[in-house]
Design goal:
Helix content: 55-70%
Largest sheet: 2 strands, antiparallel
Distance between the termini: 60 Å
CATH class of the largest domain: Mainly Alpha
Radius of gyration: 25 Å
Strand order of the largest sheet: 1-4
Shape: elongated
Strand content: 5-15%
Keywords: ATP-binding, Nucleotide-binding
Protein name: Fic protein family phage protein
Pfam families: Fic
GO molecular function: ATP binding
Oligomer: single chain
InterPro entries: Fido, Fido-like_dom_sf, Fido_containing
Amino acid sequence: MEYKPLKITKFNNENEYESEYSKRINSFGIIKTEMYPNLMKREISKGREFPLFVVPLLEVQMLMQQIQEKSIIIKDLADQLPEVAKDQFYKEQLYKAVINTNEIEGVKTTRREVSEAYNAVINRSKNEKIRLLSTVRMYHDILINNFLKIDSIETIRNIYDELTKGEIEEGNELDGDFFRNDFVNILDQNSGKLEHIPPTKETTIILMLTNWITFINDKTIPFLIKASLAHFFFENVHPFYDGNGRTGRYILSRYLSRKLDIYSGLVISQKINENKKKYYEAFKITGDYDNRAEGTFFVLYLLELLKDGQDDIIDILDSKKAILEDTFNTLKSMDDLTNIQKRILFLVFQSTEFVDDPKEGIKDNEIIDILSSEYPKKTIKDNIKLLRENNIITKTTKAPSRHKLNSVKLFKD
């Protein structure tokens, strides 16, 4: 029998509604939290009457198992990549995570802006006026320091401040000690209907997020269920005037990166953006008063999104890895190229194959740094120049100098 929301049970047979809720909330193995979300009924706030809970259905358990298995596959595939390819693939996923998480909230973000911010982070630029610098720095921290301990209200505020620095519009500044302290509502982006009314007073927000902090640090709850419920509740509280989704998805990404792998953590924003309508519908279902704060369907949906994102990552890594191997073998068999030229070409190829924009490929000076332990720097520079003059590579940027393979010229019959 199909497992359905309580609201459908109420619609089909109201006499069974209370008993069905009691059966679910009191069943063996239930995950019942101390988090009480604000619930809605027909555009009216019904307050915080019921605790958020999940029924650990077999479907939920299977999804959790599949996600962990796929994460192992992703890590294995990524570990097989050459270092340059791996770095480029990570960079591409970071770009997409930042662009997509902003786009979900209607914040226009270009690839060029993210690229400039990323290069500034890598080069440790002190120019704080670069747009998205702080955001990209936070996402880059996932790679170099993926543990983020959230054990205080102050930590949440610090994450928000760093993540959204320079991105919050005038009029949306916080007016409480840590969070907002005034009324907001959330409207459906298409219909304009009222979807959610979060708590108004900062004291209530702090109380709810204190319970949230206790929940996320509870080691007795399966981590994927914990991540999903925590994401729902954080967005339900809506502690800021602007930037709630970006902050919540960053926390989710960082947690999944630590518990699974970096790519699973970064892909979630992209999948949410591709499925925005269903994502918001999942919030609506759990936030419906007649469903009594049951988070089962939200957990199911978020885990499905995560699994789909992992499938995308695996497909990309599989296909790109095969292309890399073919290219390596082709270059190896080309007698008209010297060993140093083959090395240069393979570095150029792997650096552009894993990013959407060839202008993001490896810099010439990075090629020189990599190969300088084996060849004189002048020899490397001369061979890069020779390959360009022979039209085997084409310059994509001048300052800094980058190239891409002219595959038609290189692999012609």
